[in-house]
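PROTEIN DESIGN WORKSHEET
SECTION A - STRUCTURE
LENGTH: 185
TOKENS:
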């Protein structure tokens, strides 16, 4: 299926996968890479050195700066703020700092992400979170600064403790704690 590009969008990249929809007033620079079946909503900006996986949703008013790496099945809520420079100064250009969003994670509306962090697989940030450090796989974080308040499964449902580092989803899937967060048993 073809790529759908709204007539008001400025799209210079040729690296966009099939069935991706790009909506009104979006600006995508030439070297950005976007996978298939993505949804890029109104008023988004995507810089050159950005990679976006398949089936990703980028909601309205999000700017993705050089160094943002987004894996498959990620959700980025409206007005999420990314950065790529830990100590910015006008006209003082430094190498960009990469930020990684791992498979299936969800970033809540209005969240702010410090450059250089990693959001783990299927992790979730709550609305308005200020994320200043890495988020483990399947972790639920929120607040300012964002702190962990539990674990979630692939569908975003909260997990319940099962003792000795094991957790259960409402659908009966079992997880265990690891150094990187949780993993399915």
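SECTION B - SEQUENCE
RESIDUE ASSIGNMENT:
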């Amino acid at each position: 299926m073809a790529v759908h590009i709204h007539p008001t969008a400025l799209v210079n990249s040729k690296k966009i996968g099939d069935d991706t929809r790009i909506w009104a007033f979006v600006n995508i620079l030439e070297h950005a890479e976007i996978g298939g079946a993505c949804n890029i909503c109104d008023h988004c900006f995507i810089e050159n050195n950005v990679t976006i996986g398949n089936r990703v949703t980028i909601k309205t008013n999000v700017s993705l700066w050089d160094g943002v790496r987004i894996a498959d099945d990620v959700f980025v809520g409206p007005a999420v703020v990314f950065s790529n420079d830990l100590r910015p100064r006008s006209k003082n250009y430094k190498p960009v700092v990469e930020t990684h969003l791992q498979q299936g994670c969800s970033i809540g509306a209005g969240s702010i992400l410090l450059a250089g962090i990693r959001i783990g697989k299927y992790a979730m940030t709550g609305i308005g979170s200020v994320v200043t450090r890495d988020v483990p796989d399947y972790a639920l974080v929120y607040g300012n600064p964002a702190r962990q308040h539990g674990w979630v499964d692939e569908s975003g449902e909260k997990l319940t403790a099962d003792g000795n580092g094991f957790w259960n989803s409402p659908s009966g899937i079992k997880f265990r704690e690891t150094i990187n967060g949780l993993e399915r048993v």
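SECTION C - NOTES
The first strand starts at residue 4 and ends at 5.
The two ends are 37 Å apart (CA to CA).
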